[in-house]
TrEMBL record:
<dbReference type="InterPro" id="IPR003131">
    <property type="entry name" value="T1-type_BTB"/>
</dbReference>
<feature type="region of interest" description="Disordered">
    <location>
        <begin position="159"/>
        <end position="202"/>
    </location>
</feature>
<dbReference type="InterPro" id="IPR011333">
    <property type="entry name" value="SKP1/BTB/POZ_sf"/>
</dbReference>
<protein>
    <recommendedName>
        <fullName>Potassium channel tetramerisation-type BTB domain-containing protein</fullName>
    </recommendedName>
</protein>
<feature type="domain" description="Potassium channel tetramerisation-type BTB">
    <location>
        <begin position="50"/>
        <end position="133"/>
    </location>
</feature>
<dbReference type="GO" id="GO:0051260">
    <property type="term" value="P:protein homooligomerization"/>
</dbReference>
<dbReference type="Pfam" id="PF02214">
    <property type="entry name" value="BTB_2"/>
</dbReference>
<dbReference type="InterPro" id="IPR045068">
    <property type="entry name" value="BACURD1-3"/>
</dbReference>
Length: 202
């Protein structure tokens, strides 16, 4: 029990260090980007309201929200010279799923992600369409973090079972190995895009 708690604390400490390092790198990159982005983009004032019509549903928010990921299609349409022309109602139309787009808006506003694996999968695909690299990286980080915790807990359980006293041979050893009902660590996200191969099976 003590070994399990110690390993869990070590994992949490290492993960906190990784997150801290990632934040420092991101802060430096954003600082550099902000200094150079004006050379290539001219965005509307942050308090300006831009409307997107996604699948017939209107989404209104400020330029500050839409340009959180400044390399995205949404951000480009918030410039003084957008590559698409707005409709007569001054909205930009996308023939996409509005139900998933609402999750994009939630992330751009509050950095929130859904818990459902299916919604994460759909959100990842839509993030690719809109060129939202920030959102895709957030989903990948969620995958890596939860799988790392699951892997650590599995390793602890295996270690505890191996260190336990050996009793009489169990009959369950005669069962085929393919009848093991415990799910694979990666099965939780088997349908989620895996661009870096963290959970892909060989």
């Amino acid at each position: 029990m003590l070994s399990r708690e110690r390993l869990r604390r070590e994992l949490e400490r290492e993960w906190a260090l990784i997150e801290s390092a990632e934040k420092k790198v991101a802060a430096r990159w954003i600082s550099w980007f902000e200094k150079n982005v004006s050379k290539h983009f001219s965005f509307l004032p942050e308090d300006s309201v831009v409307v997107f019509n996604v699948g017939g549903q209107l989404f209104k928010s400020t330029v500050k929200v839409w340009t959180r990921d400044r390399f995205s299609i949404l951000a480009q349409l918030c410039t003084t010279a957008p590559k698409l022309r707005p409709d007569t109602d001054q909205s930009f139309f996308f023939d996409r799923d509005f139900w998933v787009f609402r999750l994009i808006v939630a992330f751009l506003r509050d950095s929130t992600l859904p818990e459902s694996v299916e919604e994460l999968r759909e959100l990842y695909c839509e993030a690719s369409f809109y060129r939202l690299g920030l959102l895709r990286h957030a989903i990948e980080a969620r995958m890596i973090g939860e799988d790392a915790v699951a892997a650590n807990e599995l390793q602890v359980r295996l270690s505890d079972s191996q260190s336990a006293p050996v009793e009489a041979p169990a009959k369950v050893q005669d069962k085929p190995s393919n009848e093991d009902s415990s799910p694979s660590i990666a099965s939780k996200y088997s349908e989620l895009p895996d661009p870096f191969g963290f959970t892909s099976k060989k």
